[in-house]
Amino acid sequence: SQKIEQNSEALNIQEGKTATLTCNYTNYSPAYLQWYRQDPGRGPVFLLLIRENEKEKRKERLKVTFDTTLKQSLFHITASQPADSATYLCALDAGNNRKLIWGLGTSLAVNP
Amino acid sequence: EAGVTQFPSHSVIEKGQTVTLRCDPISGHDNLYWYRRVMGKEIKFLLHFVKESKQDESGMPNNRFLAERTGGTYSTLKVQPAELEDSGVYFCASSQDYRATGELFFGEGSRLTVL
Q1: Which of A36, A98, A104 lies at the smallest CB-CB distance from B42?
Q2: Rounded to a whole number, what is the largest CA-CA distance in chain A?
Q3: Whole-angstrom Cα distance, residue B25 to residue A4?
Q4: How many CB pairs under 8 A join A and B?
Q5: Which end is more exposed in chain A, N or C (fewer Cβ atoms within 10 Å of the end residue's Cβ)?
């Protein structure tokens, strides 16, 4: 069955360091992969989308990589700040039907 | 510009009762999606509207769930009769041109508790 795995354990890092989150998937060939941020009690907020033919995408302090051979995406936050503390969700798009398949998310805590 | 709004934010009902959740998408967004997150599980797709038409309802759990989108504007999701396993957070999302940016705009969710 299709499966998406994200770091199940919370990630704690020091302010200013780079946070790296992992998203692995199996039995799937996504046309897109997306990253969202979710704060407690709120809805997911879109961050970045990367297509299957793209290796890397950047947006300000965020960087996403996509390796379709390894079936893995890495999400980096450079110069992390306490305000970056949240749960980060990885989601795949099949392309044809536009529905997203989600991972459980990784909780990130940036300590001052 | 107003974002996606959902109502109610939290609903507590008894098993067997009926609940109707409402979603107002961003104005002009033709695509409207319903997703659900059950505690401890990942977010799961329920269905997708394009304007007033159901494009994909493959994620709807069973016939106790009924979604409508009258006139292609707001949408409602009715659960009747509610069961314990229906508890969770129901998210609505909208987009205008999904292919162009891929971005979905989510509401804050409606938390449903069935006792």
Answers
A1: A104
A2: 43
A3: 28
A4: 56
A5: N
Percent of chain B with pLDDT over 90: 86
Dihedral Cα B22, B27, B30, B33, nearest 10 deg: -30
Which residues of chain B make contact with A46, given a CB cutoff of 8 A? 102-105
- Do residues B9 and B110 lie in contact, with contact meaning Cβ atoms separated by under 8 Å? yes
Query: Residue A90 has which token pair?
Result: 């990885």
Which pLDDT tens digit goes with each residue over B38-94? 999 999 999 999 999 999 999 999 999 999 998 889 999 999 999 999 999 999 999
The backbone region for A71, taken as left when phi is positive above 0, alpha when psi lies in -120 to 50, beta otherwise, is: left
Chain B nearest-CA residue for A8 = B40
Chain A interface, best mutation among B43, B44, B47, B92, by max A CB count within 10 A: B43
Please say whether the beta carbons of B35 and B45 come within 8 A. Answer: yes
